[in-house]
């Protein structure tokens, strides 16, 4: 009976080892496909990580890996915050450009209207000397608004 049980256990063990090789091959294939797509690396399969630290070096490596994962998480969160802030700044810049454009259009309209009013006023002036003087005033205003 013992030899039959021993034979049965060896067959089960062989089957499990075969399944393990197949799963490992599938894992390696998926990992390569994952890495090829440029995604973040997959974690190591459980059998590659020690269940409990076998040596102080294993414990150090596990602790370091844990710290690195935490640091990576903080960096990714910080990057997301910066990206969101950048989007807000871009939106504000766009709005400020729109406001500046409106102000410039209004200013140009106002100055054009002022110049037109001054010019019209000079047309009704009776004296040639006064007209000449008013023309000089208009030119001075124009040059102060639109310097060359």
From TrEMBL:
Looking up InterPro entries in the UniProt record yields:
KCMF1/Dystrophin
GO BP: muscle cell development; neuron development; regulation of muscle system process; skeletal muscle tissue development; synaptic signaling
- Coiled-coil residues are 72-106
This protein's species is Oncorhynchus mykiss
Q: Where are the transmembrane segments?
A: none
Instruction: Tell me which domain of life the UniProt entry assigns to the organism this sequence originates from.
Output: Eukaryota
What segments bear the compositional bias annotation Basic and acidic residues? 1-30
Q: Quote the protein name from its UniProt record.
A: Dystrophin
Record's keyword terms, sorted: Coiled coil
Q: Specify whether Coiled coil is a keyword of the entry.
A: yes
What is one term from the GO cellular component aspect held by the record? synapse
Q: Where do the record's region annotations for Disordered lie?
A: 1-58
